[in-house]
Design a protein that fits this description.
By secondary structure, the protein is α+β, with helices and mostly antiparallel strands. Helix content is 63%, strand content 9%. It has a four-stranded mixed sheet with strand order 2-1-3-4, with helices on both faces. It is globular.
């Protein structure tokens, strides 16, 4: 999840509602354009500092944002960027981070009722990358162009994905900040937030039946008082049982964990 503090967190919360209006196509355009602005501000330190200088009146910064971006943005995205310039930011780099967060959330919502499927697809792409050191290394190889790295991943999964998922995967590959896996994890959290859900990663020694997944989701929904989306990972090393990671909580009921606990008690 986007790690913003203080004034920057307040600014992001204040901007979030502005990305919810319009048709699905409008929302997709909003996401695409906010991603583009975030990329520009990451590379243009002078502009980024000018738009986040807390000693300058908000109206002046808003005017600068409009002067720079009005020819390239639709009115909705321009409104978000100009409003963002009027707000206080804890650090200048928090502005592009917040715009990327808003862009990812808008992109997820542009899938409409398939928003939860976007999260599922992001999770599967993350698993593909995580299971292949060669692919991971290729995607992090900065001697390859961003377009080349995007084509490499798209060749593996692109035709199977929703348009919104393709956009997010492309951004994760090309944003030049952190690893692709870390970006996908951030987008997974943002997707859950956009769909008003939380994500539980469930490690299990065997595939769970649909009925077992429904029972587990119902129990977690009740415990956390919100909708919980399950992402299931089969891990034969667990021998049996489940290990559930949700937010900062870990619920470890695996056989391996119980054996480790028994060994500790015997040793003590």
């Amino acid at each position: 999840m986007t790690d913003l503090r203080g004034a920057s967190a307040e600014a992001l919360a204040g901007l979030a509602e502005q990305t919810r209006a319009g048709t699905l196509a409008d929302t997709a355009t909003m996401g695409e354009q906010l991603f583009a602005v975030a990329g520009i501000l990451r590379h243009d330190a002078a502009l980024r500092r000018a738009l986040t200088d807390n000693s300058v009146e908000g109206e002046a910064k808003s005017g600068l944002a409009r002067a720079v971006f009005e020819k390239s943005l639709e009115s909705a995205a321009l409104g978000v960027v100009s409003d963002a310039a009027t707000r206080r930011w804890t650090g200048s780099r928090d502005l592009p981070t917040a715009l990327e967060h808003l862009a990812a959330a808008a992109t997820v919502r542009s899938a409409g009722r398939d928003g939860s499927r976007v999260a599922d697809e992001l999770f599967e792409v993350h698993r593909v990358i995580d299971s292949s050191p060669e692919l991971r290394n290729a995607l992090s190889d900065q001697t390859r162009s961003a377009a080349d790295r995007s084509r490499l991943l798209a060749g593996l999964v692109g035709s199977q994905l929703l348009p919104a998922t393709n956009v997010l995967v492309g951004q994760a590959v090309t944003r030049e900040q952190g690893s692709v896996g870390a970006a996908l994890e951030e987008y997974l959290d943002i997707a859950a937030e956009a769909m008003e859900e939380i994500v539980a990663t469930v490690h299990t020694a065997r595939e769970l039946t649909a009925e077992e997944q429904q029972r587990l989701a119902a129990a977690l929904n009740k415990q956390y008082d919100t909708s919980v989306q399950l992402h299931v990972v089969v891990d034969e090393d667990l021998i049996g049982g489940l290990r559930v990671e949700i937010r900062d909580d870990v619920i470890d009921g695996s056989v391996v964990n119980r054996l480790d606990e028994a060994r500790r008690r015997l040793a003590g």
